[in-house]
Amino acid sequence: MKxxxxxxxxxxxxxxxxxxxxSHVFPSGAAYAFSTFCTTLSTLTSSSSSSSxxxxxxxxxxxxxxxxxxxRLTSALSTLPSQNEHVFLSAHVHDARVSNVYVEYGPKVxxxxxxxxxxxxxxxxxxxxxxxxxxxxxxxxxxxxGREDVNGREKTTMTMAMEAMEEGAVAKIDVVIDADITFRHxxxxxxxxxxxxxxxxxxxxxxxxxxxxxxxxVAAELSDGDGGGEKVIASESCRREITVQFTSxxxxxxxxxxxQALKEGPWRISDIDHLIESDLFRKYxxxxxxxxxxQEENEISR
Length: 302
Known about the structure:
The chain is α+β, with helices and mostly antiparallel strands.
């Protein structure tokens, strides 16, 4: 059934966006989008970027990324400026190909809502979306059902699925990007004059003085002469494959049937190397473990 649902999702993409767009235009656009993302991320954290450059980078990422991924990355990067740290990321793309496609039928529920995984089996996952919706995913196809409909049990699953399909859909495409990746995480090292100013606030004796002198010498070796420099915290340059997921805007049934899906707005990067998916699964495992421990404690206390 996995192959059947994958074929169903691909058929939806081709019917909604066209064979040429899905098979040829989209992979090329995905490669360009990922390369642009890397450049924009570097501009956002660069010490040499002006305030206007950083604001432009923030605005670009806001348009480029799905909300959960945007919040995840900006949260991780928020501490860099106070530590004088900078992340440089670049990608020279050799190839891009579609690996997996998904379609989720249902109403438009907003881009900022991160699903909360509550049940997982080999073929089906169930997630909560906010306080009003459930997402049922069966391999490559998903349906968004209203919480009241599910809890009320007045509608059959087939009825709810048909109603969801009439509301429209969101498509997701995994693209495997083969690229030369350069990553560098650095920290700005104080200049000699800055270190002297920092150490002139008081006097030290004995071991304290020796420690201060040693720290100053190590900092000087890490810096570029007396003018300061950069300390490399982590660095890597290699050719590798990265899986980047793109999510479409919500497309109503009428728009899809009318061939106007491409006018509904840009696709957004929603996951990179399963970062968001891994977070969701990790939180699911943690909640499951807490419930297991609570159940054992309750049984012992009886």
